[in-house]
Specification:
It is a single chain. By secondary structure, the protein is an alpha/beta fold. The chain has nine helices and eight strands. Strands 7-6-5-4-3-2-1-8 form an eight-stranded parallel β-sheet. Helix 2 links the parallel strand 1 and strand 2. The longest helix is centred in the C-terminal third of the chain and has 22 residues. The site of pyridoxal-5'-phosphate (PLP) has 14 residues, from strand 8 and helix 9.
């Protein structure tokens, strides 16, 4: 894609969806110049899935960019990103959450987090089993972690042409979100984000109730 196309694609995308749906521009593998093209249109939310890549890009890009971490995060790397990350969308274990809490405390910060929930068929996708996470809540396992802020859930549907299946998985996550909200976060205004949908399925995700989509190739072109 040419530079001009990046700004245009982003604008086409944001114009084609309801205004209250947040777009995270997934910039993994893309250059700083490409990111700036999107940034100059006024876009601030960018997603990266590798700590090393994020650490290379972050110091050289504008400080008001809100970096979303969307990949599998190893516990020993948490300390490198808690100082500046805006939202960790891929919290997939209690051990990871505890590490984020501890490192955030050391850094004097409160880190925004989403729980990644496993909703797809694929074994390769990380995330909590819904029942497991529900149980952690019932058992009060999350209490006393004062340096994390749970802002909602993230999930990825099965990579398939079967739209009915994808819609079913997203609807499942929306229902699960409502159930957690009702039972454990009813008086917590922060628990409100439901991050689902990427280039191939964001329209289905929105239909199912997503309010945050993570889109890469549709904005920046295909990754090699
Ligand atoms: C790469 C990635 C995306 C964006 O994928 P596209 O198909 O390029 O839109 C969204 N979410 C996660 C977790 C990703 O790793």
């Amino acid at each position: 894609m040419t530079k001009k196309d990046i700004g245009n694609s982003l604008k086409l995308l944001t114009d084609s969806i309801p205004a209250d749906i947040k777009v995270v521009a997934v910039s993994k593998t893309k250059s700083k110049e490409d990111i700036l093209e999107a940034y100059y249109t006024g876009h601030l939310d960018f997603g990266e899935n590798k700590v090393q890549e994020l650490l290379e890009k972050h110091p050289e890009l504008p400080k008001d960019i809100r970096w979303h971490f969307i990949g599998h995060l190893q516990r020993n790397k948490v300390k490198h990103i808690v100082d500046f990350v805006y939202l960790i969308q891929s919290v997939d274990s209690i051990r990871l959450l505890k590490e984020i809490n501890k490192r955030s405390e050391n850094a004097g910060r409160i880190t925004n987090c989403l729980f990644q929930i496993s909703i797809a068929d694929e074994e390769t996708k990380f995330g909590f089993e819904p029942d497991e996470l529900y149980k952690w809540h019932e058992e009060g396992e999350l209490q006393g972690m004062n340096h994390i802020r749970i802002c909602g859930l993230m999930g990825m549907a099965t990579n398939t042409e079967d739209n009915v299946k994808v819609l079913g998985e997203f609807k499942f996550l929306k229902d699960y979100f409502n159930k957690l909200k009702r039972n454990f976060y009813s008086s917590d205004d922060h628990f409100k984000e439901l991050s689902m949908g990427m280039t191939s399925d964001y329209d289905i995700a929105i239909e199912a109730g997503s309010n945050m989509i993570r889109v890469g190739s549709r904005i920046f072109g295909f990754r090699s």
